Structures are given as structure tokens and as C-alpha cells.
Design the sequence.
């Protein structure tokens, strides 16, 4: 994301993805696009691998939920991370329905289009981590 053929890109480290996700404050959102841009900026390259970034986003969400079940808090507000198009992530713990509930509890309006859920006007809430 953000790179053209021949540009240098970074293969992300899971801890970098988690660190970006941890910095999304209440009332704000982030997508995989912003995560990739921030990590690429940190490494002074044009882009990062969106495939591994997406995998690590899901791993972080599942780790946070597992820790929560064990009475621990990893402080990863993973539900504030959306897909590139503003849709909710069905691979998060509890699926898109659970993410929807958490986002609505924070005041976001979630709408359904066909079988997918989206945060209405999500672009207005995307945090600027640059």
C-alpha cells in the first residue's frame, strides 16, 4: 500500500502493527491503509506489505481478546481498526457483529450494506498518526 513496482517496501514486524493499533484513541479509527503508511514512514520507505499487516492485525485482536478472557488487558483497542474500505472485520473475535457492538458503544454509527458492516462516514474519524 502506497508503493509502486520497484519501490522499497518493508515486511512488517507484528510489534510495529500492535504499537500503531494501541495509539488509536477513543473516538478515532484507523484502517490498514494508515497502519501501512505509518510503518512505511517510520522505515523511510514507500510502503509495507498489506498481507502480513492484515494478518498481524487479526493476530493482535485475537491475542487481546484471549488476554481479556484471562483477566489481563493488553490495551489494544483492536475494534477501532477497520478494513481499507471502512468495513468491519469478520475475522475479529466474535466477528463483525461483536466489532459493531463495541464501535456502537463508543458512539459510532454502523450501517449494513448487503452482508457487510461499515462505520458511517468512517473517513471523518480516521486518526492522523503521521
Sequence:
Amino acid at each position: 500500500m502506497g508503493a509502486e513496482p520497484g519501490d522499497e517496501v518493508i515486511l512488517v514486524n507484528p510489534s510495529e502493527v500492535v504499537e500503531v493499533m494501541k495509539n488509536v484513541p477513543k473516538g478515532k479509527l484507523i484502517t490498514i491503509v494508515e497502519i501501512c503508511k505509518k510503518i512505511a514512514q517510520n522505515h523511510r520507505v514507500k510502503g509495507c506489505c498489506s498481507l502480513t499487516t492484515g494478518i498481524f492485525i487479526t493476530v493482535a485482536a485475537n491475542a487481546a481478546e484471549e488476554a481479556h478472557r484471562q483477566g489481563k488487558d493488553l490495551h489494544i483497542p483492536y475494534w477501532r481498526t477497520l478494513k481499507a474500505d471502512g468495513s468491519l472485520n469478520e475475522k475479529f473475535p466474535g466477528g463483525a457483529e461483536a466489532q459493531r457492538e463495541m464501535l456502537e458503544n463508543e458512539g459510532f454509527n454502523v450501517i449494513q450494506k448487503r452482508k457487510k458492516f461499515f462505520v458511517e462516514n468512517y473517513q471523518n474519524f480516521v486518526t492522523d498518526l503521521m
